[in-house]
Amino acid sequence: MPSGKEKGTLENKSYKLGKSDVLLVRGPASVRAESKGISVLGMNLEINDKITVRKNKVLPFEADEDGSLIQVTLGEKSEALISHDKVGVRIWKDLQEKIFKSFESGKRRFMIMGETDSGKSTLTSYLVNMALTRGLKTIVVDGDIGQGDLAPPGCIGAATVRDKIYDLRDLRAEVFGFLGFTSPRYVRDLMIERMKKIISQIEEKEHDLCIINTDGYVVEEGMDHKIAMIKELEPDIVICFKEIDKELLKRLKDFDDAPIILTVDKPEGVVKSPSERSERRLSQYYRFLKDGKNLNIGLRRINLSFMEDFYEYNLSEIELKEISRKLSSSILFAKKSNNKIILFRSGMNDVIEMFGRFTIFNQNSLRGMFIGLGANNEVFGFAQIDKMHQNQIITLNTNFKGKFDTLFLSTIRIFPNLRNEAILPILRKS
Fold this sequence. Notes:
Strand content: 35-45%
Number of helices: 8
Radius of gyration: 24 Å
Number of domains: 3
Number of strands: 31
Strand order of the largest sheet: 13-12-11-14-10-15-16
Oligomer: single chain
Distance between the termini: 51 Å
CATH class of the largest domain: Alpha Beta
Helix content: 10-25%
CATH topology of the largest domain: Rossmann fold
Largest sheet: 7 strands, mixed
């Protein structure tokens, strides 16, 4: 696609589309229908309907008749291009006819699988819209912990859909599952267990259809992960993109109660650069942390959770001194579960150390950490650690105003003003 407008400028452009033309618009942009005959993600636009395209999001506007008129206001580095490639949701028309024409009564689960940037989120939005037009009560589970839309990175999100959508970020999760990792490589089993719990929670709401969108980890061990996910989450239909269909079918050949596998084409020419993916991910942190205020918390009165381990008991002064002597370092704070201990110490290394019963966070690694706030192993809000004090007080920056009794720690560290992120490595010692 051609380069967009420079910083601080806007440009209005009008397009006249022929039948079967697709106008790809990369945000930030505003799009207004100037005539009938235009649709986006399966939804027809009325004259003067206006759609906002978020930064680094690409939406396909499709002409259903000749002479369709559309106006686009382009923002900084946005762009628009008429395409005749295999793009737009028309390439999935046969799919929606297959799965909805014979849709049986009763609750159903669809799972969407594909590589990174294959079009999973666009396909999910399209299927949601098609379900809504058929009067089906629909819920969405977003299992992409690295580049999700319903929840911040490191989390799973689930929401009930009540109206047509043009971007999954039009939704905000009603239920969160906190993992604290942005890659499933290190938390595969935990991730599946957390997804099972989230699906169980959201499916308590009245619904006909649950659509599960997954992450792009599908190569090598990633396919093992997806097979385990299919086995545990039990979808009725798996919709996958053609890059992975042969491997998936081969793996499921001898599978008991295998789901129906439907294969779809990947849209051509729609990709995000690494910088665009990074910006879009950082914008999700901002979405859940913006307008935060500092809050001081006494650690002795709060529980801690990390990698599904729950720490609620404070160590005695004698135990703290013994551990400090054993580790030859100053321990600022420690808590234990029945058989594990989590430690905060005055170290400057940006690393999480794990050995035996101990999980150790250095004081420097805590600064800027993205965390969850909740109770009873459920997350309700989010925060960023501002500072760890010597007197067992921790300062958080958060916009969450509800009650919580647990801090859910992560491997995610966000730099000031949400300009960048780093993933804290875990050093495992024998």
